[in-house]
Write a structure and sequence with these properties.
alpha+beta; 6-stranded mixed beta sheet; 7 helices; about 15% helix
Length: about 425
Protein backbone atom coordinates (compact mmCIF):
# COMPACT_ATOMS: atom_id res chain seq x y z
CA UNK A 1 0.00 0.00 0.00
CA UNK A 2 1.37 3.41 -0.92
CA UNK A 3 2.42 5.71 1.90
CA UNK A 4 1.30 9.29 2.40
CA UNK A 5 2.65 11.75 -0.22
CA UNK A 6 1.74 15.45 -0.21
CA UNK A 7 4.50 16.58 -2.57
CA UNK A 8 2.54 16.51 -5.83
CA UNK A 9 0.62 19.73 -5.24
CA UNK A 10 2.91 21.50 -2.75
CA UNK A 11 4.82 23.42 -5.42
CA UNK A 12 1.56 24.37 -7.09
CA UNK A 13 0.25 25.86 -3.85
CA UNK A 14 3.48 27.80 -3.39
CA UNK A 15 3.25 29.05 -6.97
CA UNK A 16 -0.32 30.22 -6.41
CA UNK A 17 0.64 32.18 -3.31
CA UNK A 18 3.67 33.74 -4.96
CA UNK A 19 1.69 34.61 -8.09
CA UNK A 20 -1.04 36.24 -6.03
CA UNK A 21 1.46 38.38 -4.12
CA UNK A 22 3.29 39.24 -7.36
CA UNK A 23 0.06 40.36 -9.01
CA UNK A 24 -1.05 42.37 -5.98
CA UNK A 25 2.06 44.55 -6.13
CA UNK A 26 1.87 45.51 -9.83
CA UNK A 27 0.68 48.92 -11.03
CA UNK A 28 2.63 50.31 -14.00
CA UNK A 29 3.30 46.96 -15.62
CA UNK A 30 -0.43 46.15 -15.64
CA UNK A 31 -1.28 49.19 -17.74
CA UNK A 32 0.71 48.71 -20.93
CA UNK A 33 0.28 46.46 -23.93
CA UNK A 34 1.37 43.11 -22.53
CA UNK A 35 -0.13 41.23 -25.46
CA UNK A 36 2.58 42.36 -27.86
CA UNK A 37 5.22 40.39 -25.98
CA UNK A 38 3.11 37.51 -24.66
CA UNK A 39 4.55 34.23 -25.98
CA UNK A 40 6.74 36.22 -28.37
CA UNK A 41 10.09 34.78 -27.33
CA UNK A 42 11.37 31.31 -28.07
CA UNK A 43 14.77 29.64 -28.57
CA UNK A 44 14.52 30.70 -32.24
CA UNK A 45 13.73 34.35 -31.55
CA UNK A 46 16.87 35.13 -29.57
CA UNK A 47 16.99 38.13 -27.24
CA UNK A 48 15.16 40.59 -29.49
CA UNK A 49 12.00 40.52 -31.55
CA UNK A 50 10.61 43.10 -33.99
CA UNK A 51 7.09 44.48 -34.33
CA UNK A 52 5.94 46.41 -37.38
CA UNK A 53 5.15 50.06 -36.70
CA UNK A 54 1.95 51.35 -38.34
CA UNK A 55 2.47 53.31 -41.54
CA UNK A 56 1.02 56.74 -42.26
CA UNK A 57 0.09 58.49 -45.51
CA UNK A 58 -0.56 61.96 -46.90
CA UNK A 59 -3.50 63.08 -48.98
CA UNK A 60 -3.48 65.56 -51.87
CA UNK A 61 -6.22 67.93 -52.97
CA UNK A 62 -6.89 68.58 -56.65
CA UNK A 63 -9.69 70.30 -58.55
CA UNK A 64 -10.00 67.66 -61.24
CA UNK A 65 -8.73 64.51 -59.52
CA UNK A 66 -5.61 64.37 -61.69
CA UNK A 67 -2.71 63.38 -59.38
CA UNK A 68 -0.17 62.83 -62.17
CA UNK A 69 2.07 65.64 -61.00
CA UNK A 70 1.39 65.21 -57.27
CA UNK A 71 3.79 63.64 -54.78
CA UNK A 72 2.71 60.12 -53.91
CA UNK A 73 2.70 58.66 -50.41
CA UNK A 74 5.71 56.58 -49.44
CA UNK A 75 5.24 53.21 -47.78
CA UNK A 76 7.93 53.12 -45.10
CA UNK A 77 7.82 50.26 -42.61
CA UNK A 78 9.56 50.64 -39.27
CA UNK A 79 10.15 48.14 -36.50
CA UNK A 80 9.67 48.48 -32.75
CA UNK A 81 11.94 46.09 -30.91
CA UNK A 82 11.25 44.00 -27.84
CA UNK A 83 14.41 43.33 -25.84
CA UNK A 84 14.97 40.66 -23.20
CA UNK A 85 16.11 42.03 -19.83
CA UNK A 86 18.06 40.41 -17.00
CA UNK A 87 16.46 37.76 -14.80
CA UNK A 88 14.76 38.96 -11.62
CA UNK A 89 15.41 36.26 -9.00
CA UNK A 90 14.77 35.81 -5.31
CA UNK A 91 16.37 32.74 -3.74
CA UNK A 92 17.08 31.46 -0.25
CA UNK A 93 17.96 28.35 1.69
CA UNK A 94 17.10 27.33 5.21
CA UNK A 95 18.07 24.55 7.62
CA UNK A 96 15.78 21.61 8.09
CA UNK A 97 15.88 22.35 11.81
CA UNK A 98 14.75 25.94 11.24
CA UNK A 99 11.93 24.75 9.02
CA UNK A 100 10.82 22.20 11.57
CA UNK A 101 11.10 24.32 14.71
CA UNK A 102 11.13 28.02 13.86
CA UNK A 103 9.60 28.91 10.51
CA UNK A 104 6.06 27.70 11.04
CA UNK A 105 3.83 28.07 7.99
CA UNK A 106 6.16 28.61 5.01
CA UNK A 107 3.32 30.32 3.18
CA UNK A 108 4.11 33.37 5.33
CA UNK A 109 7.55 33.62 3.74
CA UNK A 110 7.02 32.84 0.06
CA UNK A 111 4.48 35.59 -0.81
CA UNK A 112 6.96 38.23 0.34
CA UNK A 113 9.37 36.89 -2.25
CA UNK A 114 6.77 37.38 -4.97
CA UNK A 115 6.19 40.94 -3.80
CA UNK A 116 9.93 41.65 -3.96
CA UNK A 117 10.07 40.45 -7.60
CA UNK A 118 7.08 42.62 -8.49
CA UNK A 119 8.52 45.69 -6.76
CA UNK A 120 11.88 45.35 -8.49
CA UNK A 121 10.13 44.80 -11.83
CA UNK A 122 8.00 47.91 -11.29
CA UNK A 123 11.04 50.04 -10.39
CA UNK A 124 13.02 48.83 -13.41
CA UNK A 125 10.11 49.20 -15.82
CA UNK A 126 9.26 52.68 -14.50
CA UNK A 127 12.82 53.81 -15.25
CA UNK A 128 12.52 52.30 -18.74
CA UNK A 129 9.28 54.23 -19.28
CA UNK A 130 10.79 57.47 -17.97
CA UNK A 131 13.71 57.27 -20.42
CA UNK A 132 11.53 56.52 -23.45
CA UNK A 133 8.93 59.28 -23.48
CA UNK A 134 8.65 62.12 -25.99
CA UNK A 135 5.97 64.45 -24.58
CA UNK A 136 6.12 67.00 -21.77
CA UNK A 137 3.39 68.54 -19.64
CA UNK A 138 4.47 71.46 -17.47
CA UNK A 139 8.08 72.42 -16.77
CA UNK A 140 10.79 70.31 -15.08
CA UNK A 141 11.25 71.46 -11.51
CA UNK A 142 7.63 72.49 -10.94
CA UNK A 143 5.70 70.15 -8.68
CA UNK A 144 2.15 69.20 -9.66
CA UNK A 145 -0.09 70.93 -7.12
CA UNK A 146 -3.51 71.16 -8.79
CA UNK A 147 -5.80 68.79 -10.65
CA UNK A 148 -5.69 71.28 -13.51
CA UNK A 149 -2.02 70.40 -13.97
CA UNK A 150 -2.92 66.72 -14.06
CA UNK A 151 -5.62 67.39 -16.64
CA UNK A 152 -3.08 69.33 -18.69
CA UNK A 153 -1.30 66.05 -19.49
CA UNK A 154 -4.51 64.81 -21.08
CA UNK A 155 -4.65 68.02 -23.11
CA UNK A 156 -1.02 67.46 -24.19
CA UNK A 157 -1.93 64.00 -25.46
CA UNK A 158 -5.02 65.27 -27.29
CA UNK A 159 -3.06 68.15 -28.77
CA UNK A 160 -0.36 65.76 -29.93
CA UNK A 161 -2.93 63.65 -31.79
CA UNK A 162 -2.72 60.56 -29.59
CA UNK A 163 -5.73 58.34 -30.41
CA UNK A 164 -8.33 57.27 -27.85
CA UNK A 165 -8.44 53.72 -29.17
CA UNK A 166 -7.01 52.42 -25.88
CA UNK A 167 -6.86 53.72 -22.28
CA UNK A 168 -4.71 56.67 -21.21
CA UNK A 169 -2.97 56.69 -17.83
CA UNK A 170 -1.37 59.18 -15.46
CA UNK A 171 0.62 58.17 -12.40
CA UNK A 172 2.01 60.42 -9.71
CA UNK A 173 4.21 60.40 -6.63
CA UNK A 174 2.19 59.57 -3.45
CA UNK A 175 3.10 62.95 -1.95
CA UNK A 176 1.52 64.64 -4.95
CA UNK A 177 -1.59 62.64 -4.18
CA UNK A 178 -1.47 63.95 -0.60
CA UNK A 179 -1.13 67.51 -1.88
CA UNK A 180 -4.22 67.05 -4.06
CA UNK A 181 -6.25 65.24 -1.38
CA UNK A 182 -8.28 68.31 -0.34
CA UNK A 183 -9.77 68.60 -3.82
CA UNK A 184 -10.03 64.90 -4.62
CA UNK A 185 -13.68 64.42 -3.62
CA UNK A 186 -16.11 63.85 -6.44
CA UNK A 187 -13.59 62.41 -8.86
CA UNK A 188 -15.18 58.97 -8.72
CA UNK A 189 -13.95 55.67 -7.42
CA UNK A 190 -12.08 52.91 -9.17
CA UNK A 191 -13.84 49.73 -10.24
CA UNK A 192 -13.12 46.43 -8.55
CA UNK A 193 -9.85 45.26 -10.08
CA UNK A 194 -7.78 42.12 -9.76
CA UNK A 195 -4.73 43.82 -8.30
CA UNK A 196 -4.99 45.12 -4.74
CA UNK A 197 -2.13 47.54 -5.39
CA UNK A 198 -3.78 48.66 -8.60
CA UNK A 199 -7.08 49.23 -6.78
CA UNK A 200 -5.44 51.16 -3.97
CA UNK A 201 -3.35 53.19 -6.41
CA UNK A 202 -6.25 54.38 -8.56
CA UNK A 203 -7.47 57.86 -7.63
CA UNK A 204 -9.86 58.38 -10.53
CA UNK A 205 -11.03 56.07 -13.25
CA UNK A 206 -11.56 58.95 -15.67
CA UNK A 207 -10.12 62.40 -15.11
CA UNK A 208 -9.12 64.49 -18.12
CA UNK A 209 -9.61 61.36 -20.21
CA UNK A 210 -7.09 59.39 -18.13
CA UNK A 211 -7.05 56.81 -15.37
CA UNK A 212 -5.14 58.59 -12.58
CA UNK A 213 -3.04 56.52 -10.19
CA UNK A 214 -0.22 56.79 -7.67
CA UNK A 215 2.98 54.76 -7.58
CA UNK A 216 5.99 54.72 -5.29
CA UNK A 217 8.15 53.13 -7.98
CA UNK A 218 8.45 56.09 -10.36
CA UNK A 219 11.91 56.56 -11.85
CA UNK A 220 14.16 59.51 -11.01
CA UNK A 221 17.39 61.12 -12.21
CA UNK A 222 19.86 63.73 -10.99
CA UNK A 223 21.08 66.48 -13.29
CA UNK A 224 24.78 67.21 -13.52
CA UNK A 225 26.55 70.08 -11.80
CA UNK A 226 27.12 73.22 -13.86
CA UNK A 227 25.00 76.31 -14.43
CA UNK A 228 25.31 76.45 -18.21
CA UNK A 229 22.53 74.16 -19.40
CA UNK A 230 22.08 75.73 -22.84
CA UNK A 231 24.20 75.08 -25.91
CA UNK A 232 23.82 74.76 -29.66
CA UNK A 233 23.59 72.04 -32.26
CA UNK A 234 27.03 71.52 -33.79
CA UNK A 235 25.73 69.63 -36.84
CA UNK A 236 22.51 69.10 -38.74
CA UNK A 237 20.78 66.04 -37.24
CA UNK A 238 19.24 63.35 -39.43
CA UNK A 239 15.60 64.41 -39.73
CA UNK A 240 14.22 61.67 -42.00
CA UNK A 241 11.72 59.06 -40.91
CA UNK A 242 13.90 56.35 -42.45
CA UNK A 243 16.69 57.38 -40.08
CA UNK A 244 14.44 57.05 -37.02
CA UNK A 245 11.80 54.44 -37.89
CA UNK A 246 13.35 51.46 -36.08
CA UNK A 247 14.58 53.12 -32.88
CA UNK A 248 12.43 56.26 -32.69
CA UNK A 249 15.54 58.02 -31.41
CA UNK A 250 17.72 60.78 -32.85
CA UNK A 251 21.34 61.79 -32.29
CA UNK A 252 21.86 65.48 -31.50
CA UNK A 253 25.46 66.67 -31.76
CA UNK A 254 25.77 69.58 -29.31
CA UNK A 255 28.39 72.03 -28.09
CA UNK A 256 28.82 75.09 -25.83
CA UNK A 257 27.22 73.51 -22.76
CA UNK A 258 28.88 73.52 -19.34
CA UNK A 259 32.34 71.95 -19.57
CA UNK A 260 32.26 68.24 -18.66
CA UNK A 261 28.52 68.41 -17.98
CA UNK A 262 26.96 65.05 -17.12
CA UNK A 263 23.60 64.77 -18.89
CA UNK A 264 21.37 62.19 -17.22
CA UNK A 265 18.98 59.78 -18.88
CA UNK A 266 15.50 61.22 -18.43
CA UNK A 267 16.41 64.88 -18.94
CA UNK A 268 14.15 66.96 -21.19
CA UNK A 269 15.67 68.79 -24.15
CA UNK A 270 14.15 71.51 -26.37
CA UNK A 271 15.32 73.21 -29.57
CA UNK A 272 14.43 76.87 -29.97
CA UNK A 273 12.06 77.59 -32.85
CA UNK A 274 11.26 73.95 -33.61
CA UNK A 275 7.62 73.33 -32.77
CA UNK A 276 5.69 70.12 -32.27
CA UNK A 277 3.11 68.93 -34.80
CA UNK A 278 -0.07 66.99 -34.11
CA UNK A 279 0.68 63.43 -35.26
CA UNK A 280 -2.80 63.03 -36.71
CA UNK A 281 -3.34 66.33 -38.53
CA UNK A 282 0.38 67.26 -38.99
CA UNK A 283 -0.63 70.79 -37.97
CA UNK A 284 1.00 72.94 -35.24
CA UNK A 285 0.02 72.32 -31.62
CA UNK A 286 -1.17 75.49 -29.86
CA UNK A 287 -1.39 75.71 -26.06
CA UNK A 288 -3.84 77.58 -23.81
CA UNK A 289 -1.91 80.85 -24.25
CA UNK A 290 -2.09 80.69 -28.02
CA UNK A 291 1.61 79.81 -28.31
CA UNK A 292 2.98 76.96 -30.34
CA UNK A 293 4.29 74.04 -28.30
CA UNK A 294 8.01 73.45 -28.59
CA UNK A 295 9.29 70.06 -29.64
CA UNK A 296 10.71 68.09 -26.71
CA UNK A 297 12.86 64.99 -26.54
CA UNK A 298 14.02 62.86 -23.62
CA UNK A 299 17.66 61.82 -23.26
CA UNK A 300 17.74 58.02 -23.31
CA UNK A 301 21.25 57.35 -21.97
CA UNK A 302 23.67 59.31 -19.75
CA UNK A 303 26.41 61.27 -21.50
CA UNK A 304 29.43 63.17 -20.17
CA UNK A 305 30.19 66.12 -22.43
CA UNK A 306 33.73 67.24 -23.24
CA UNK A 307 35.66 70.16 -21.82
CA UNK A 308 34.09 72.26 -24.57
CA UNK A 309 30.62 71.13 -23.52
CA UNK A 310 30.34 69.00 -26.66
CA UNK A 311 29.04 65.52 -27.31
CA UNK A 312 26.25 63.45 -28.80
CA UNK A 313 22.89 63.21 -27.04
CA UNK A 314 20.57 60.38 -28.03
CA UNK A 315 16.97 61.49 -27.57
CA UNK A 316 13.68 59.69 -28.03
CA UNK A 317 10.77 61.13 -30.00
CA UNK A 318 12.81 62.38 -32.97
CA UNK A 319 12.28 65.73 -34.68
CA UNK A 320 11.34 64.66 -38.22
CA UNK A 321 10.90 67.07 -41.13
CA UNK A 322 10.77 65.94 -44.76
CA UNK A 323 9.58 67.38 -48.06
CA UNK A 324 6.86 64.72 -48.19
CA UNK A 325 5.57 65.69 -44.74
CA UNK A 326 4.10 62.25 -44.22
CA UNK A 327 5.82 61.53 -40.90
CA UNK A 328 6.75 65.05 -39.77
CA UNK A 329 6.82 65.69 -36.03
CA UNK A 330 8.10 69.31 -36.18
CA UNK A 331 7.25 72.36 -38.30
CA UNK A 332 10.84 72.94 -39.47
CA UNK A 333 14.09 71.03 -39.49
CA UNK A 334 16.62 71.52 -36.66
CA UNK A 335 19.96 72.75 -38.03
CA UNK A 336 23.45 73.44 -36.80
CA UNK A 337 23.53 76.54 -34.61
CA UNK A 338 20.06 76.06 -33.14
CA UNK A 339 19.92 76.79 -29.41
CA UNK A 340 19.41 73.65 -27.37
CA UNK A 341 18.30 73.75 -23.73
CA UNK A 342 18.14 71.12 -21.01
CA UNK A 343 15.12 71.52 -18.73
CA UNK A 344 15.38 72.08 -15.00
CA UNK A 345 18.29 73.13 -12.84
CA UNK A 346 21.79 71.80 -12.21
CA UNK A 347 22.57 69.16 -9.58
CA UNK A 348 18.90 68.49 -8.81
CA UNK A 349 16.97 65.27 -8.28
CA UNK A 350 13.85 64.95 -10.45
CA UNK A 351 11.08 62.37 -10.35
CA UNK A 352 8.62 63.15 -13.13
CA UNK A 353 5.07 61.89 -13.06
CA UNK A 354 4.28 59.79 -16.12
CA UNK A 355 1.38 59.78 -18.55
CA UNK A 356 0.90 57.37 -21.44
CA UNK A 357 -1.35 55.59 -23.89
CA UNK A 358 -1.54 51.85 -23.27
CA UNK A 359 0.26 51.15 -26.55
CA UNK A 360 3.26 53.35 -25.75
CA UNK A 361 5.08 50.41 -24.17
CA UNK A 362 4.91 46.65 -23.90
CA UNK A 363 6.12 44.21 -21.30
CA UNK A 364 6.26 40.44 -21.40
CA UNK A 365 8.32 37.55 -20.17
CA UNK A 366 10.50 34.89 -21.71
CA UNK A 367 9.34 31.30 -21.32
CA UNK A 368 11.61 29.84 -18.66
CA UNK A 369 12.68 26.23 -18.91
CA UNK A 370 12.22 23.99 -15.89
CA UNK A 371 15.33 23.12 -13.92
CA UNK A 372 13.89 19.87 -12.65
CA UNK A 373 10.72 17.84 -12.51
CA UNK A 374 9.64 19.55 -9.30
CA UNK A 375 9.69 23.03 -10.83
CA UNK A 376 6.35 24.76 -11.35
CA UNK A 377 5.57 27.49 -13.88
CA UNK A 378 2.89 30.03 -12.97
CA UNK A 379 1.47 32.67 -15.33
CA UNK A 380 -0.49 35.86 -14.75
CA UNK A 381 -3.64 36.62 -16.70
CA UNK A 382 -1.68 38.98 -18.95
CA UNK A 383 1.07 36.50 -19.70
CA UNK A 384 3.95 37.13 -17.28
CA UNK A 385 5.52 33.84 -16.23
CA UNK A 386 7.13 32.97 -12.89
CA UNK A 387 9.14 29.84 -12.19
CA UNK A 388 9.06 28.24 -8.75
CA UNK A 389 12.02 25.94 -8.04
CA UNK A 390 12.71 23.89 -4.94
CA UNK A 391 15.65 21.68 -4.14
CA UNK A 392 17.88 20.58 -1.33
CA UNK A 393 21.44 20.21 -0.14
CA UNK A 394 21.11 16.86 1.55
CA UNK A 395 24.71 16.93 2.85
CA UNK A 396 24.18 20.34 4.46
CA UNK A 397 20.66 19.42 5.62
CA UNK A 398 19.23 22.50 3.84
CA UNK A 399 16.24 23.19 1.68
CA UNK A 400 16.57 25.64 -1.22
CA UNK A 401 13.98 27.71 -3.02
CA UNK A 402 14.10 30.25 -5.86
CA UNK A 403 11.60 32.30 -7.83
CA UNK A 404 12.42 33.67 -11.28
CA UNK A 405 10.97 36.17 -13.76
CA UNK A 406 12.68 36.85 -17.10
CA UNK A 407 11.09 40.05 -18.48
CA UNK A 408 11.25 41.73 -21.87
CA UNK A 409 10.43 45.40 -22.64
CA UNK A 410 9.53 47.29 -25.78
CA UNK A 411 8.96 50.93 -26.72
CA UNK A 412 6.10 50.76 -29.18
CA UNK A 413 5.67 54.51 -29.61
CA UNK A 414 7.50 57.14 -27.50
CA UNK A 415 5.18 59.86 -28.85
CA UNK A 416 2.40 58.18 -26.85
CA UNK A 417 4.00 58.96 -23.46
CA UNK A 418 5.38 61.89 -21.52
CA UNK A 419 6.72 63.45 -18.32
CA UNK A 420 4.20 65.25 -16.12
CA UNK A 421 5.29 68.31 -14.13
CA UNK A 422 3.52 71.34 -12.74
CA UNK A 423 3.38 74.78 -14.33
CA UNK A 424 5.12 77.89 -13.03
Amino acid sequence: MAGNNFESNYNTKIAEKVLDSFESARVLSKNVNTQKLTNAFSPKSGTTIDFKRPTDYRSVRTADGDVTLETKSEIVVGNAQGVVQDYVTVFADYDEVDEALKMGDLSDFFPKMGQRIATDLEVDFAIFMMKNCALLSGSPGNQVSTWKEVARAGAVMKGAGIPKDAPWYYTMNPYVQADLADIQRGLGTAPDLVSEAHRNATLSDNFGGMKVMTSETLGSFTTGAGADRAGTLSANPVVTYVGAKDTMTQVLAVTAFQANLVVAAGEVITIAGRNRLNLSTRKPVVDETGSQVLWTGIVTAPVTLSGAGAGNLVVTGPAIFEANGQYDTVDSAPVSGDVVTLGGSAATLYQPNLFWHRDAFSIGSVDIKKLSSVDTLAETADGLQLRVSRGSDFLGNKNKVRFDLHPAYAVLNPFYAGHGYGTA
